[in-house]
Amino acid sequence: MWQKIDKAQGPAYRQMMDQIMRKIEQGELNPGERLASERKLAEAFGVNRSTVVHALEELRALGILTSKQGSGRYVNQTEWGKFSIPRIDWRQLIAHRYEQSINHYEEKINRGKKQTSAFLDLYSSEMPNELLPDFQFPSYSLADILMEEKRMNRYGYLPLKEKITGYLKEELQLTFAADQLLVTGGGQQAIFLILQTILSSGDAIAVESPSFFYRLPLFKAAGIRLFGVAMDEEGIDLKQLETSILKNQVKAVLVNPNFQNPTGKVMSQKRREALVQLCRRYQLPIIEDDVFTDFSFSEMNEVQPLRLLDPDNVLYIGSLSRVLGRTTKIGWVLGPETLIARLANAQEMMEFSLSIVSQMLATSVFDEAFLSKMSLVRQQLVKRSQRLIDWSKEQTFFELHPIKGGYYAWLTWEGKQLSTEIADELIAQGLGIAPAQLFGEEVNGLRLNFSRLSEEELPKFSELMNQAAEMLKK
C-alpha cells in the first residue's frame, strides 16, 4: 500500500504526509478510518518511528487526522471536507527553498560559545571589533536627514555614489557613468538582486569549488542551482568550467577572484583573461564578487579586475560591510546601464532600498582618511597571519596555504576527513573552525579566520589543533 521513502527526494516526513494525503484524496483511506500503528507504518515506509510520529503530528495539526488516546490515529470525519478541494500546499512551496537554509553548524558554534569559557571562534565571517577601523561618525539632526533625502535617487545617495566612484577610479582604475552604479545593502544583497533579475528559478550558475557561496541561503531562496568547478593554483579550472557550461546549461559564472573564500587564492591575470574570453564565447555574464580587495597584503598591480577586462559582460560587486561590522551593510554593483536600471527597479519593488542614515554614515567613512585607516587594518592582519605561519612551521600535519590577503586561512592534510563528529568534538573542546564540507567540497580542508586569533590565545590554539591532528590521522 505504501511506497518506501527515498531520502534523495526530500524530507522523509513530508513524503509520508504526501502519500497519506494522496490516499485520502483518492478514497483509499476514508473519513473515520484508522491508520496502522506507528511501528507498522515505520516498517512500511522504511523509516524510523520518530519520523512517523513527526509526519502524523503534522497531519493532526492540519486537522487531517485525529488521535484517540490508546486507540491510534484516524482520518478526521468532520474536518476532512475542508481539505478535499484544491488548495495551495504552502509547506511544499516553502520547504524546497528554505527548509535546508538553517545553519545548524553555526547554531552548534553559538552553543559552544555559551557552554565553553574562552571559546576560540575562528569560524566567524567577521573580524573582531578591535581590528575594525576607528571611524568617528558624525551626529545628524532630523533636519539634516530630511535635507539630505533630497539628494537621494533610486540608485542611492548621490554623495555616497560620488565617493564610491572616486574610490574605484583611484584604486582600481574603474571608470563608468553614474547610472552604471547601484548602492545596495551589502554584497550579498547585490548578488540576490542580480539572481532575481537575470536568472529564473531552476537556472544554473557555475561557482568555484570550494566556495562560500554554498553557505548562502539566497541561492535556495531564488531557486538557483549551483554547480561547483574545481580550482588550481591560478583559479577556476576553465576546462572543467566549459564542460559544466555545456552539460548543465549554465546561465552565469560567479567568481571571487581576490582572496577567494575559503581558500584565499588570487586568480592569475592569465586566468582572468582566459575566463573573460570563455564567457564571451558562450555569451555568459560574469558576476565578480570583490569584497576582499581592500585587504591585500601587497600591491595588486599584477592583476586587474575582471570588470576592467570586459566592462560590457562583467557585473562587479564591492562592499564596505567587512569594515563596518554586522550592523551597517553597504555594498554596490557596477554594470551596464540597462541592467542597473532593472536592478534599481527590483530593489524598489522588494523594498531593499537603504535608509538615508546608513548611506550618510558610509559617506563619512570615505571622508575620514579611509585609505590610511585601511592600511592600519592590513598591518594588523599581516601580523596575525604571521602568527599562524609561525605556528604552521612548528607542526607537520597541517599544510597552510599561502596567505596573500583577506583574513581567512586554508589548511589541508593527509588523513581522515573532518567528519561531523570530529568537528563537534572540537567545538566541545572550545574551538570553532569551518570544515570544507560547508563549502560544497568533500576534501580534507578547513578554513580559519586568523584575524580572531590573538597572541594570548596561541598556546590554546596550538593545543587544540594538536588534538585535531590526532583525530584526523590515518
UniProtKB/TrEMBL annotation:
Domain of life from the UniProt record: Bacteria
Residue stretches making up the HTH gntR-type domain: 10-78
Keywords of the record: Aminotransferase, DNA-binding, Pyridoxal phosphate, Transcription, Transcription regulation, Transferase
Gene Ontology terms, MF aspect: DNA binding; DNA-binding transcription factor activity; pyridoxal phosphate binding; transaminase activity
InterPro entries, per the entry: Aminotransferase_I/II_large, HTH_trans_reg/aminotransferase, PyrdxlP-dep_Trfase, PyrdxlP-dep_Trfase_major, PyrdxlP-dep_Trfase_small, Tscrpt_reg_HTH_GntR, WH-like_DNA-bd_sf, WH_DNA-bd_sf
Short name of any one Pfam family annotated for the protein: GntR
Similarity-based family: In the C-terminal section; belongs to the class-I pyridoxal-phosphate-dependent aminotransferase family.
Name the record gives this protein: GntR family transcriptional regulator
Organism, as annotated: Enterococcus thailandicus
